[in-house]
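In this supplementary section we document a worked example of the pipeline. Step one takes a protein sequence of length 265 as its only input; no multiple sequence alignment statistics are reported here. Step two produces a three-dimensional model, which step three serialises into structure tokens for compact storage. The input and output of this example are shown verbatim.
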Amino acid sequence: LVYALIKRPFILDLQPGRSVVESLVNQGFDVYLIDWIPPAARDDWRGFDAYVNRDVANAARAVKIHHGSDEITVLGYCFGALLALMYTALHPREVKNLVTLTIPFDMSVRELPMTHLMDSMSPQAAEMVTAIYGNVPAWMINAGFQAIAPVHHLLDKYVGVYRNSERPGYGEMFELFERWMTSDVPLAGQIFREVTSLGRENKLYCNQMMVGGRHADVRSISCPLLNVVAELDDVVHPKASLPLPDFVRSRDRRNLTFPTRHIGA
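The serialised model returned by step three reads:
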């Protein structure tokens, strides 16, 4: 499991009965999860090359050694799905199956507040943020999400608590969920600059993404691909995710949609 870089990954193992990890284990899978170490000030140089060709590649190698396998299945969520897709494109022989969950693949889709927020981040602004802070502070990332959906954060969630207060375990789940919602971590300065460039130029969709001097060619992917899409996604528009299967060479490829929002997926 390759999670996003901007929050802690325990949302995937929130509590018994509400756990992606538990569900997969119960279905007979051996599950490994990358638990990203938040970048320190000295890590501001870390970009896609460091995260994909070093960290994900080293994690995959460790899993294969530990499990005694030649290939692994990689599942990535949101930003983590981008990392998983790039890793598979750059190391296609290492991956048996690829599962992408709510992936922002076609970044030309401009129908949600998140994309407008990204549009406002010019190269000059990105350089200024990283020149001042080195890494993008966690509070800045959290403020961005708060700005995208302020009504949800300030009102809707508490209405939901009231309506579901009698459901067994709901109060505990809500408390854990709130802890996760505020678990933002800094984003390394270099990958922040690269992400803003990726979004502006739509590099993956246009097949122009370079990572560590190598072409992350999505067309090199031939393993089975399952692309999971949230039909009501309020962070990554479904139209940004749905095109991905058309870009790979896999014979076994499909979209799987659910009537839920981003986190609900």
